[in-house]
Amino acid sequence: MTATFALCAALAAATGARSAASLVPARIDAALLFDSSQAGAGLRAFLDGVAQRAPALSAGSHVSAAVGPDLLADPLSWGLARSGPRALVVADGAFALTAPVRDSKSARASLQAWLGEAGPVRSRTIAGRTAFWSGDAKRTRVGLIASIAGSPRLLTASGAQAPALATALAKIGARSAATPPLSADQSLRAPLARLTGSAALVLRGSDPLRALALNLAGSAEGLVATGLLLAPSPLLSGNASDPAACSEAALFCARAAFGPSGREVLALLARAYVRAVLPAEKREAAARIAERAAAAAERLVVRSDGADARLLSEYTTPLPALRLWAATSPGVDGASLDANGPRPSCVRGDATRTWFATPGRETVPADLAAKEGEPALDARLDLAAVDAVLQKLSPLDVLHGGMAGALYAGRLTVGGLLRRSGPVRLRGSEHPSGAEVELRWPLH
Predict the structure, then answer these.
(1) 89 in Cβ contact with 96 (< 8 Å)
(2) Alpha-helical regions (H) of 278-382
(3) Closest Cα to residue 139, out of 191, 108, 94?
(4) Residue 379 placed within a domain
(5) In the structure, what pLDDT confidence band is assigned to residue 9 with cuts at 50, 70 and 90?
(6) Per-residue pLDDT at 190
(7) Computed over its alpha carbons, how large is the radius of gyration of the chain?
(8) How distant, in Å, are the alpha carbons of 183, 206, 262, 428 from that of 231?
(9) Residue 303 has pLDDT above 90, yes or no
(10) 380-404, pLDDT tens digit by residue?
(11) What average pLDDT does range 404-411 have in this prediction?
(12) What's the whole-number mean pLDDT along residues 214-236?
């Protein structure tokens, strides 16, 4: 009973959405955590606003198909309880739910109906409990009602790995510690401690970006997400450069002041970018310069002044279409490279800064010196400007192939959302375990 008592104690001690982390396996890819039935109200208001602007993005049907109850739109359906933590979980491509039950009879009836949608319902034992499932492969659905932490809970899962995920959820709080909860992962102690709001999102990754834990505050006016991005060492350090460096950016602009892990992230992004936009014979030389620049970088400014829609039909990635320049400080003295890719581009460097530009340019009109009072990270993406670029695509562009077809269809689906969203803003400050971050997505 030791594990059960420990779980009960953890649930009692935790406040906010992090209380649900005691009910979720540590080995997950993502988890949406709620502290009660009403915790998702703000997030639902935001998602409703998204659906009004882009009806195809309505979340309710997708949630119901994946896990049964819609915790956002109808949190008391299926006989679920008003109080008590609950979570939506993603692991290895499978989706799952754990939620407290008030009316077991109603929950069982709803579970049988949901399972029946995928085919004949059969039973088997998992974690010493009777579970039911239907379907096969990616259409597999699994569900059971189990006593966890001394109270009945509904567990559902779907996907090829649904049985394994449902089993892990069912073992939380069992005598065996073979399935430790997310809350017991000491590497996540710092980010989980910040989840004091009623709704939260946890994402797990790999070095150098190990995990992200965000409090979610939604409304009809937009979404605000704040929390900690976890890394082996600080991602950010000091102050970014003057905002004037972004004054002419049309699509996006980012200013950053790096810590050790931030330079590692920059190197990974730079290598991926040069592979996508430069001709094969120039990639290795450009990658070497980019790695040297990233290793020394204290500050970065990267911005896009627009994009050429015609290039979207020629490549399998939208990156070559961007008119972009990026500069880091200090520089790689003597760096020089010219390339004829989608458009002429160049890399240049001196003792103070290194810059990449497409189309190429011999100077970069930006002061990269740290600006007192500025955050360590400030990034802005103008979604309305993105829509303006996509509106230049036509059915003829789709026929040419490349990314044009997918983006043309995407604009028809989400164009209203892009046009009626304010610029998305990301800010960050230094933290010993990575970076404190704040994301704002306003809706108009």
Answers:
(1) yes
(2) 280-296
(3) 94
(4) no
(5) very low
(6) 92
(7) 24
(8) 18, 9, 9, 14
(9) yes
(10) 999 999 999 999 988 887 777 778 8
(11) 88
(12) 97
Check if the beta carbon of residue 400 is closer than 8 Å to that of residue 408: no
**Phi, psi of 80, rounded to the nearest 5 degrees:** -75, 155
Judge if pTM exceeds 0.90: yes
Structural domain of residue 89, as residue ranges?
2-227
- The Cα 84–Cα 241 span in angstroms is 46
Under the banding of pLDDT at 50, 70 and 90, the label for residue 133 is: very high
Dihedral in degrees, nearest 10, Cα atoms 409, 410, 415, 417: 150
Residue with tokens 């890719």: 341
Model pLDDT, residue 7: 53
- The reply to whether 310 falls in a domain is no
**Burial of residue 219 (number of CB atoms within 10 Å: 0-12, 13-18, 19+):** middle
pLDDT, average across residues 136-149? 94
Q: Which two tokens stand for residue 67?
A: 């896990």
CA distance 290 to 297: 10
> Is residue 389 situated within a structural domain?
no
Measured CA distances, 412 to 46, 51, 53, 57, 422 (Å): 21, 14, 11, 12, 19
pLDDT (0 to 100) of residue 14: 58
Res 12 pLDDT > 50: no
Helices (H) and strands (E) in the chain, counts: 11, 19
* All residues at 6 or more sequence positions from 122 whose CB lies less than 8 Å from its CB, including other chains: 132, 133, 134
- CB atoms under 10 Å from CB of 150, counted, come to 11
Task: Output 52-58 pairs: Cβ under 8 A, ≥24 positions apart.
Answer: 53/416, 53/417, 53/419, 53/420, 53/421, 53/443, 54/413, 54/414, 54/415, 54/416, 54/417, 56/413, 56/414, 57/413, 57/414, 57/417
368, 299 contact by CB (below 8 A):
yes
Alpha carbons 311 and 315: distance in angstroms, whole number = 7
Instruction: Give domain status of residue 190, yes or no.
Output: yes
Number of domains in the chain: 1
Q: Would you state the pLDDT for residue 397?
A: 78
Place of tokens 């990449």: 356
The Cα–Cα gap between 41 and 108 comes to 25
- Phi, then psi, of 401 in degrees rounded to 5: 95, -150
Kindly report the CA angle at 269 between 265 and 29, in degrees rounded to 5? 65
Residue 308 CA to residue 301 CA, distance in Å, equals 21
Mean pLDDT of the chain: 91
Q: Provide the pLDDT confidence category of residue 1 given band limits of 50, 70 and 90.
A: very low
> In angstroms, how far is CA 33 from the centroid of its own chain?
14
